[in-house]
Amino acid sequence: MAAGAYRLVHYLRLASVFVVLLWIFIQFGGAGDTRNQYASLFRKFRDQRTVFVSDFLNHDVNGPYNGEGLSDLCSAKKWTPGLLLTCDAVPGSMTDVKNGILTCVRVAIEIGAEIILPEIKLRSTMDLADITPHDNGPRRGVPLEHFFDRAYLLNTMGQFCPELKIHESLNDFYDEPNVLTPVPLDLYKVPGVEIASNLPGSAGKLVVAGDKLGKQILDLINAKSPPSTRQYPFRVALRPTPSYIMPSFADPPPLRRYFGRLLRVRPDLRALAAGMLFNLQKAFGLTIDPRQGIDVDAFVGVELRTQPDPLPFPAYAIQASDALSYILANNMSQVFLTEGATAEDAAAFSARCKEFGVNVVTKEDLLEGPDVLTLSELSYDERFLVDYEVVLHAGLFTGNAQSSFAWNVGLRREFAFGEPGAANSSHLNGTLRWHSPYSTLYGKDNIGDDFRRAIWP
């Protein structure tokens, strides 16, 4: 018995040596076509996940960035060297923050100013509904790269809007004491600015004529500091930084479709999402290629919002009923549930779907190894950034129109994959707010209209 065990161990050792030698040969041996054949043969076994993640990171859902609209916008402006715009840190969800930062960039372009990119005001970890904890004085936060890819933003802006000079921080002006006392700027109090309070669902947040805003701001600045006597650098401080004030829907299509893509999710979170998407397709036996478009039969991305939030979302029963109706109406059987629901509601939704033969998975179901620890260390809004990257690749997506996240996903997918369909699609139950061939948002008339009109997805 002992001799048999010894021989088994001996054979296993020899086998291990053989595997190592084979791996070395495949990696470094062979030449030309022979080596390529080995690489191709073992790719699908050894490197499937690695290749998938690489393809994901190197391809956006609607192709390479098209900077034509941004280039046209920047080249048409008059730029003033030394005119500096700073913006308060932006609070809120990932979409609120994204749109707020983009608003800051857009205002700088409109007035031809240099800029210091705003920070991110993180929400309370004790109360998710509190998005501005300890909100006293000018808002401070964490750097932009806490959510987004700063290098990508700087490279893209440098290529398509080189006129906009971006400074790292106020430390760049350490020897310019006058920048410490900026002219405050509240966009809602700029003379001549008309707010669209008469538009259904606008809640009085949206500027009517975004193309006039730059001149109106400059008129205000010039009244406070005549250009003939102004000393540069001259700082203007946007306080607060609003997220939904610019009518992005009025932008020319090349600008609106791509301006939001200046802010791309930071690379490590995109890589985490790519690994999850790879595991999701394996779990469901799907075929997903990040280099291509989407397969509408792949899976459904669903957002349920029952966690504490500043906005009043419908009750769980209503949201769950709408989502399940959408899933069944489209004959889908695989669901990815995003962040937003309480653990109890997520479990209840999964159990209810299972009764209809529908499988529901979450991030926790799709991670393994070190990625589990990585996910556990992410904040509520960082987890939404991961979800965003996953559901952009879903065959279908549904959420509630009260959610800025849902609007961002829906509009980005519309720009990537297709135009909107009829708002009253007869094959879907519930109260439809917005519908495209690839995404459907539920809600009453005009709910989320600020988001629809102002988001750069």
From TrEMBL:
The organism's place on the tree of life at top rank: Eukaryota
Transmembrane feature ranges: 12-30
Keywords per UniProt: Membrane, Transmembrane, Transmembrane helix
Name of the protein this chain belongs to: Alternative oxidase
Species in which this protein is naturally found: Sporothrix epigloea
